[in-house]
Amino acid sequence: MKRVADVMTEEVRVIEPQQSLKRAAEIMAKLDVGSLPVCNGKRLLGMLTDRDIVVRGIASGLNLEMDCVSAAMTEAVLYCSPGQDIAEALHLMGNHQVRRLPVIDAERRLVGIVSLGDLAVETPQDAGTTVSEISQKNSAPRRI
């Protein structure tokens, strides 16, 4: 049985809740990513996506240079643990239509992130099913 810890990325760039939305966007652009975990130290507080910056930030009138990440981040974050079976992580992704999950320990400290791509390497057929579930048009999408 392969566990999430076997395939996750351990080195994860995070952002602190008091940093500006502009700084978050700069980091995302530099790393070519669409989301960042929001952490206080190693403790996961939420996730910030490029969509959060646009919809909750710009469209709501927030100032990218003055307003903080905490004003636009998603607090209710779906996550998994390092010991979870990768099939369980794929199931979570498919059911909630997300492509990546933060990996946290029992103290809610971020220890990694696992993407659909990470899991696809181990279980290509199961990952294909998950992609189909994520992409279904008649389900309400969730951000992460």
Average pLDDT for all residues: 87
CATH class reads Alpha Beta
The side-by-side strand order for the widest beta sheet comes to 1-2
What is the terminal separation in angstroms? 26 Å
> Number of folding domains?
1
Indicate the structural class. Answer: alpha+beta
Choose one word for the global shape.
Answer: elongated
User: Number of DSSP strands?
Assistant: 4
Estimate the strand proportion.
15-25%
Write the layout of secondary structure elements.
Elements: H1 4-7, H2 21-31, E1 35-40, E2 43-49, H3 50-58, H4 86-96, E3 100-104, E4 110-115, H5 116-122, H6 124-135
Antiparallel strand pairs: 1-2, 3-4
Helix pairs in contact: 4-6, 5-6
Explain what the structure shows.
The chain is of the alpha+beta class and 144 residues long. The protein has one domain: CBS-domain (Roll). Helices cover 38% and strands 17% of the residues. The chain has 6 helices and 4 strands. The strands form 2 sheets. A two-stranded antiparallel ribbon has the order 1-2. Strands 3-4 form a two-stranded antiparallel ribbon. Helix 4 runs parallel beside helix 6. The chain is elongated, with a radius of gyration of 15 Å. The chain starts with a helix and ends in a 9-residue tail after the last helix. The relative contact order is 0.21.
